[in-house]
Amino acid sequence: MDTDGSKRLIEVFGDYWHIEGDEEERRSHFAEYGFDTLILWEHEINRMSDSEIAERIKEVRSNKE
Q1: With 0-12 CB in 10 A as exposed, 13-18 as middle and 19+ as buried, what is 9?
Q2: Coil, strand or helix: which one is 39?
Q3: Which residue from 3, 7, 45, 49 could staple onto 35, CB 3.0 to 4.6 Å apart?
């Protein structure tokens, strides 16, 4: 739950345990309960700086405000 009452979820997918089809399935599942879901992949996070990760999270927040 975000501070403004919005339901937002961040999920991190490990490259070994997940396949690309998992993304939409997870988003749909959580959407049934009113959650907006940001999915970050292990290989994405490994390439990103902390500030880039923070920017992705901010973008998701600003898209719903």
Answers
A1: middle
A2: strand
A3: 7
